[in-house]
Amino acid sequence: MIVFSGRTWLIPVLALVAVLALALAWAGRRGHARTSVRIVCGILKLAGILTLALCLLEPLRVSQRARSGANLFALIVDNSQSMQIKDAGQTQSRGELLRGDLTNDASGWQSALAQNFRLRRYTFDAQLQDARDFVDLKFDGGASALETALRTAADRWRGQPVAGVLLFSDGNATDITPDLSGLEGCPPVYPVVIGGDGLRDIALEKVTASQTAFEDAPVTVQAEVAAHGFAGEPLSTRLIEVGAGLSNVVAEQKQSAPGDDSNLNFRFQIQPEKPGLHFYEVETRAQSEMGSGASQTREATLVNNRKMAVVDRGQQPFRVLYVGGRPNWDFKFLNRAVADDPQVQLVALIRMARREPKFSFAGNELSNPLFSGFGDTNEETARYDQPVLTRLNTKDEFELRGGFPKTAPELFRYDAVIFADVEADFFTHDQMVLMQRFVAERGGGFLMLGGAESFREGNYAGTLIGSMLPVYLTEPGQAKLPSEWKLTLTREGWLQPWTRLRSTEGEEKTRLDAAAPLEVLNSVQGIKPGASVLATVSDPDNNNYPALVVQRLGLGRTAALMIGDMWRGGLRDETSQKDLAKSWRQMIRWLVSDVPSRVNVTPETSANGDPSAVRFVVTARDEEFKPLDNATVQLTVRPVHLLQSTNAEPAASFLKITADPLPGQPGKYEASYIARDAGAYSVEAVVTQFDGKPAGRAMAGWASDPAAEEFRVLKPNRELLSAIAQKTGGKVLTMSDLADFAHRLPERAAPITETWSDPLWHKPVVFLFVIACFVTEWGIRRWKGLP
Q: Residue 550: CA atoms inside 13 Å, Cβ hemisphere, count?
């Protein structure tokens, strides 16, 4: 802002300028030179006179600037391992070049900042740390918690005058939130981009493991690979199963990089042989370098060439309760199929004879003659007025001794329940309420199979169990029941791996076309909203009717299989028998796939920005699957396999941790652990009730690989640094900009400022301008021969 301190001279100056301007105009009119020459000379002379006149008004430049020594200014330097990368054409790493610039200060920008601000120096990797200087920078941090460091610094400075932050980083952060919400209230950040482009590298950007009920390949490992500078070269990716003393190559795939910046996807489908936790290591390299050491590679780093994947195939077998109204062929084939699955245990309660009226005979015999000759017969189950039930595959002699469970602890021990050809009158109202709780609250699976006494034929219309089904039973269906039905999958059914038995669509269609026709179908009125029809049957007239319908219900799921003679599909040959068994196993696996257990432990990445920090969340439930409070939760952590890229020694064989209750969340407990060594880990949670009784145990696995996340992207993340600058009101800089930035920074907005003035009227440049105007005007007149 320009102000004039000599305002008393304003009127005399204006009068003098007006008189001189008129005199110049009058003198110019009397001259004999060309008009353009006279105008130029007049303008030059008038400019010099006006400048001298303005000097009489004493002009001053007045502005605000940061008060010297009153404000803080911070230098924050990235000390993570990604700064060890050597850019193309450089003999030193990014960190070495940065350390040299910070310690030498050849351009004097740090000295310039220190003259006007109180400098604070920090370094950050997993957390923010104070630094006296930057001579001892090692660039060995396992994480780049950039947002966490800025947020921590802002919290430390709260209430203090901070003019801004110079952030020296490549921008490859490991803790950034999508909206940078952690930077609210942060002072202006001026990121200095460290590093360049043009690197040759292959990196595993993401590895995910997913599970399905498809028996041939229930586990899919997806690897996303980014290749820079390897155009046209074949890349090899291996899937290695690892563990304690185990390292076995399961599969290997090869693809060629189509360009210099290529993204490739590798997909492995595997079938683990045993239940429990399985750990896999994915490794990718150029095919020509696979198996070679770091000294023979052309890549910028090999740290990002490995990642771990964890697959949990379940620790304890799922228990399924089968309730049948009569012995039938479907149970025989189902029981035989599940017997080959170590992860499923089928417990059966089958009615052998219906309840009969009680008669008094001369011999006064109360028991049913069906039980004659059995000395250990239960008196209650052998009475005439009770149905004759048999139990199969029970855990002990007491399981299901009283028939279908009548209490929540008895029923909730199962993961799924199957009703087959049993009428609604077999269950009491309380047992139906219990079944609703089993699905909606406990999260169990429920499947009803077709038969003579299932669905509407079993009088389930209008009952609580009927309301759980994904089909309507209120009115009879309009289907004309022929003797032959052909099974086909719907569009939604093709998308479900557990409904298919072949790996390709063509093979599956061929199998369905060759399958034996079915003869028993329960017709239903319609499908409930939200339910999905996965399979239909068609009659010889090509009329389609729903055969398999599923839906979610509360925390669980229900399914209706309206076919009552699935066993016919396995009568043709040995292949059809195997297909039938496989279809039963896949259906049961789907039914129990998302059923929660009484104890669950979940490893979660910590929110503090340190990728090696893990937070364990344990969920404990009582026998009725209600939150279990006042329990003792003991965790045991074991390292399973350490990545070959780490130089650290293996940790102790195990570590015990006690979890604490989570405030405001009944039945939940938490504990923290830091896995400094990169590799795979397992955690086992043992929950004990307050009365000393065991509530259950659970296991989970996770992979700790902070270095791979740190080196996932090697190019500087200019977009992120620009977003941080824009979010906080700063500006992205380079090292060459720092000298000019340091001298101009005091003129920017700061918390504590002062007013300063700079007199313009006695600056040498002003008088040089006046002399230049008069000398130029005189020279033009002499040149043109004017007086």
A: 17
Q: Amino acid letter at 113?
A: L
- Strands across the sheet containing 2-4: 2-4, 59-66, 753-759
Distance CA 649, CA 190 (A): 40
Identity of the residue numbered 332: K
Q: How far apart are CA 646 and CA 317, in angstroms?
A: 36
Q: Which of 391, 380, 378 is nearest to 352 (CA)?
A: 391
Q: The sheet that has 486-489: what strands, in order across it? A: 388-392, 344-353, 318-324, 416-420, 445-449, 556-561, 544-553, 532-538, 486-489
Contact of 313 with 210, CB cutoff 8 Å: no
pLDDT for 600 beyond 50? yes
End-to-end CA distance of the chain: 42
The CB-side HSE value for 686 (13 A sphere, CA atoms) comes to 9
Q: If you count DSSP H runs as helices and E runs as strands, how many of each does the chain have, helices first?
A: 16, 34
**Residues 503-549 pLDDT 10s:** 888 999 999 988 888 888 888 888 999 999 999 998 888 888 999 99
- Write out pLDDT tens, residues 134-172: 988 888 887 788 988 999 999 999 889 999 999 999 988
- Compute, in degrees rounded to 10, the torsion defined by CA atoms 456, 458, 464, 465: -100
Confidence band (pLDDT; 50, 70, 90) for 646? very low
For helices 10-30 and 35-56, what crossing angle results, to 10°?
Answer: 170
pLDDT at 385 over 80: no
In the 3-class helix/strand/coil scheme, how is 416-436 assigned residue by residue?
EEEEECCCHHHCCHHHHHHHH
Specify which residues 269 forms β-bridges with: 220
**Tens-digit pLDDT profile for residues 57-102:** 666 665 667 788 889 999 999 998 888 888 877 778 889 999 999 9
From residue 725, give the alpha-carbon distance in Å to each of 400, 482, 720, 730: 68, 73, 9, 4
CB-neighbour burial class of residue 168 (10 A; exposed 0-12, middle 13-18, buried 19+) = buried
Cβ pair 581, 333 in contact under 8 A: yes
